[in-house]
Design brief:
Largest sheet: 7 strands, antiparallel
CATH topology: Pnp Oxidase, Chain A
Number of helices: 3
Distance between the termini: 21 Å
Low-confidence stretches: none
Order of helices and strands: HEEEEHEEEH
CATH architecture: Roll
Strand order of the largest sheet: 2-1-5-6-7-4-3
Mean pLDDT: 96
């Protein structure tokens, strides 16, 4: 299960960078950096990605998803099955899909004698106003 303090942090920060892993039909691993993630509860995460991305296609093909979360004192990987719950967020001008991960296992991936001192540093570049507006639309859709 996800720790309560991590859920609260992810909700407080809204845009929370994570690394997402999927597997294609040939067994090839695909990793990507995602900032649209929302914890529904201790056993459920939602992620939004471009609808035509390898990540989206891999999840649709086999449902396997891993989400790696870095936070103060935590490096956790959540594994489980995911399903598409929103094919396209209508308010977004390009195709973005929402997937829901049912967490089956959470592994602590810190090695002994180490810690994480914060979340992944992240900042929008380019038109920050448009990106913040886009983030709000996607996060509102994810929260349902």
């Amino acid at each position: 299960m996800l720790p309560r303090e991590l859920i609260d942090l992810m909700r407080d920060l809204n845009v929370f960078p994570v690394v997402v892993g999927t597997v294609d039909s040939d067994g090839n691993i695909h990793m990507t950096f995602v900032t649209w993630v929302h914890p529904v509860d201790e056993r459920t995460l939602r992620v939004a990605v471009s609808s035509n991305s390898a990540t989206a296609n891999n999840i649709r093909d086999n449902g396997k998803l891993a989400v790696h979360v870095f936070a103060p004192d935590k490096s956790l990987t959540c594994y489980g099955d995911a399903k598409e719950i929103v094919e396209k967020i209508e308010e977004v001008p390009f195709p973005v899909s929402v997937f829901e991960l049912s967490i089956e296992r959470v592994d602590n991936t810190l090695f002994p004698g180490s810690t994480i001192t914060g979340v992944i540093p992240f900042a929008h570049t380019g038109n920050v106003y448009k990106m913040v507006e886009l983030d709000k639309k996607v996060l509102d859709a994810m929260k349902g």
